[in-house]
Amino acid sequence: MLRVPWVAIAGNHDRNIVELAGHRAIDAGPLRLVLVDSSHDEFITTDASWLDDELSAYRDQPTIIAIHHPPFETGIWWMDCVGLAGCGLFEAVVRRHPQVVKVLSGHVHRLIQTNWGSCALWVCPSTSVSIAADLDPEHDPSETAEPPTFSLHAYTNEGVVSYVVPVGAAAARSPIAPNAPDFIAWVRGVQKSRRGQFA
User: Fold this and answer.
1) How confident is the model at residue 199 (pLDDT cuts 50, 70, 90)?
2) Residues 6+ away with beta carbon under 8 Å from 29
3) How far apart are CA 184 and CA 161, in angstroms?
4) Among 42, 69, 83, 130, which is least packed by CB within 10 angstroms?
């Protein structure tokens, strides 16, 4: 069970879940989170108008946008065939708003990162099946046996730090202290003098 506040957006398999339908935005500390519903596989002019108005109203607040479909061509040909119609329109709106620091998406079941200028775009991996990272259009669609993973994002004064976190057996932790006690003592000493974002 999650013990923190959470909010969800609909994916293409969730388009009939009324509770997840529609665009919305929330504040999360210093961040504005904008949730764009692309569950119907397209981004049209009414969506663009809503997003542009929302972003215009919060120009001075760092913003992260979550949208199910990657709003760009990933290079995995068969996933691009079932991608977001109107992604160029989405990009045009986002590029007008420099407070957007990151766009998060899913759909492709594979970690992919790119950028539009200073705005990073991140496609989350999957806790379900993983799609093969195969850029050859002659190959048939494939899945891989990679372990399930999810993304974790931390917002700091410096920006967004993103992680890929495994689930299940791949996530088992093994302390290094028994094999490196001197290193642990040394790094704990360094930790006391640090003033980092996560200290």
Assistant:
1) low
2) 155
3) 24
4) 42
Burial per residue of 140-171, b for 16 or more beta-carbon CB atoms within 10 angstroms, e otherwise: eeeeeebebbeeeeebeeeebebeeeeeeeee
Tokens of 91: 């990009």
What would the two tokens of residue 53 be? 């108005």
Q: Which structural domains are found in the chain, ordered by start?
A: 12-173 (3.30.750.180)
Separation in Å, CA 178 to CA 66, 172, 187, 189: 41, 16, 15, 18
Q: How does pLDDT run across 112-149, given as a tens digit for each residue?
A: 999 999 999 999 999 999 999 999 999 999 999 999 99
Stated length of the chain? 199
CB atoms inside a 10 Å sphere around CB 87: 19
User: What type of residue sits at position 170?
Assistant: A
Please state, in angstroms and rounded to a whole number, the distance separating the CA atoms of residues 148 and 104.
Answer: 18
The fraction of the chain above a pLDDT of 90, given in percent, is 90
Question: Residues 10, 40: contact at Cβ < 8 Å?
Answer: no
Return the structure tokens found at 13: 């398999």
Which DSSP helix (H) or strand (E) runs through 181? helix 181-193
Tell me the two tokens of residue 131. Answer: 């799609």
Quick one: which H or E segment has residue 154? strand 149-156
What type of residue is 182?
D
Query: Looking at residue 192, what DSSP letter applies?
Result: H
